[in-house]
């Protein structure tokens, strides 16, 4: 059976919780196996030349393993349905999905508007690769909203949003930005990794291409690298064709791990949301803390937009400290017992990182910022661990 023969059964129910369980599966095609099997392979054989010609005439880009297998199709189809888009493509990492989505819609001489709180490696790609290709990049204030119309140029082809930002957590007015971009003939690309399609529906808010670091919440177990880009029907041919020029694909083992992880996305993400919010609330009144950056907090500047556009929150937020010395920051990190220090987020484990984002450094009066990912541990245990670490560091700071 070729990859083009695989057609996952479409769920009768549209509730995403049901889709997470039933989407992308076709047990009747695989001897009743509840999961789509892991397909490894490059060459796909046909019994005769007529079969080859017939398949190639239908879709010549599906007759080689690089263009996907039933395992690939299962994940891509389910994510496209979850996001409300037309079709999806997998990539070997979230950064790869971001960069190749940008390259699909840009050429030399074009201009791109990119939110100033963008994921650091995407900023580096824009400044070091897009600039080298004679593509002009302007970093705009993420809170600009409809006023982004004033930043548009005749050469603006892409507006890139990330809401909330994965370091500073501003919530963007995506519908207003998308409306202005479309009036000027630009497409809107969005990094939707923080909320996932469960908590933010990008295409219902005007986005043309939604990108996720599937490494994070979709996989959910910190054991695979994967990116996914989903396009609207109008944007799909551009994304698909230009991505194929670069030979981008993802390994079947990582895709299989994403399929395994995504089945429990709903229950995991609600736990991350509940625990993260409780942890954020517990830090609000500490003397070391200047501000807690979490859109689900009523006092957060982006809370009203979050309430309007989102249906939930993930476990990722940040804490801005009052101006303190490096010894205080070190004391917090070294005292924590349940939080690992490491890159990424979205897995079952709790993490902390010191934020060193370019956008963060522009904030006057801010002390060090700690990004926190609340995992699936007991909320009470995480709160207590953070409390004792802050209490220990506070003593050294005279708090």
Topology:
Layout: H1 16-22, H2 49-58, H3 70-83, E1 87-91, H4 94-105, E2 111-115, H5 120-130, E3 136-140, E4 156-162, H6 174-183, E5 187-191, H7 196-199, E6 209-212, E7 227-231, H8 236-245, H9 252-262, H10 265-282, E8 289-293, H11 303-309, E9 316-321, H12 326-335, E10 340-341, E11 351-354, E12 369-373, H13 379-396
Parallel strand pairs: 2-3, 2-4, 4-5, 5-6, 10-11
Antiparallel strand pairs: 1-7, 6-7, 8-9, 9-12, 11-12
Helix pairs in contact: 3-9, 4-5, 4-8, 10-13, 12-13
β-strand amount: 5-15%
The CATH class of the largest domain is identified as Alpha Beta
Largest β-sheet summary: 7 strands, mixed
Number of strands: 12
Low-confidence segments: none
Pairing-aware structural class of the strands and helices?
alpha/beta
Radius of gyration from the alpha-carbon trace, in angstroms:
22 Å
Q: What count of helical segments does DSSP give?
A: 13
Assign the CATH architecture of the largest domain. 3-Layer(aba) Sandwich
Portion of residues within helices: 25-40%
- Could you give the distance between the termini? 67 Å
Count of discrete structural domains? 2
- Give the topology string: H per helix, E per strand: HHHEHEHEEHEHEEHHHEHEHEEEH
> Could you say which overall geometry the principal axes of the C-alpha atoms support?
globular
Strand order of the largest sheet: 1-7-6-5-4-2-3
- The CATH topology annotation of the largest domain reads as Aspartate Aminotransferase, domain 2
Under CATH, the homologous superfamily of the largest domain reads Type I PLP-dependent aspartate aminotransferase-like (Major domain)
């Amino acid at each position: 059976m070729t990859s083009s023969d695989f057609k996952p059964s479409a769920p009768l129910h549209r509730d995403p919780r049901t889709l997470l369980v039933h989407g992308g599966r076709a047990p009747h095609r695989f001897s009743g196996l509840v999961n789509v099997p892991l397909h490894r392979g490059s060459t796909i054989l046909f019994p005769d030349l007529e079969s080859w010609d017939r398949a190639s005439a239908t879709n010549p880009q599906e007759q080689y393993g690089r263009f996907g297998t039933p395992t690939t199709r299962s994940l891509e189809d389910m994510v496209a349905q979850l996001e409300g888009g037309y079709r999806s493509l997998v990539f070997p990492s979230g950064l790869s999905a971001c960069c190749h989505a940008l390259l699909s819609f840009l050429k030399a001489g074009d201009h791109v508007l990119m939110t100033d709180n963008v994921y650091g490696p995407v900023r580096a790609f824009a400044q070091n690769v897009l600039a080298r290709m004679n593509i002009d990049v302007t970093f705009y204030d993420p809170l600009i909203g409809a006023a982004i119309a004033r930043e548009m140029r005749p050469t603006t082809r892409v507006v890139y949003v990330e809401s909330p930002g994965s370091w500073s957590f501003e919530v963007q007015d995506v519908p207003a930005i998308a409306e202005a971009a479309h009036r000027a003939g630009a497409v809107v690309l969005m990094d939707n990794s923080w909320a996932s399609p469960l908590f933010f529906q990008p295409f219902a808010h005007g986005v043309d291409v939604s990108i996720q670091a599937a490494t994070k919440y979709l996989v959910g177990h910190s054991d695979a690298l994967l990116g996914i880009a989903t396009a609207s029907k109008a944007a799909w041919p551009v994304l698909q064709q230009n991505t194929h020029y670069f030979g981008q694909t993802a390994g079947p083992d990582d895709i299989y791990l994403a399929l395994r992880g995504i089945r429990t996305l709903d229950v995991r993400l609600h736990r991350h949301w509940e625990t993260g919010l409780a942890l954020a609330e517990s830090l609000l009144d500490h003397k070391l803390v200047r501000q807690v950056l979490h859109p689900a907090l009523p006092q957060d500047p982006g809370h009203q937009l979050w309430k309007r556009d989102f249906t939930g929150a993930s476990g990722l937020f940040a804490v801005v400290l009052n101006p303190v010395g490096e010894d205080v920051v070190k004391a917090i990190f070294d005292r924590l017992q349940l939080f690992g220090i490491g890159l990424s987020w979205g897995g079952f484990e709790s993490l902390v990182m010191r934020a060193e984002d370019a956008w963060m450094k522009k904030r006057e009066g801010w002390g060090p910022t700690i990004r926190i990912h609340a995992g699936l541990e007991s909320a009470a245990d995480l709160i207590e661990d953070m409390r004792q670490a802050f209490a220990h560091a506070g003593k050294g700071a005279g708090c």
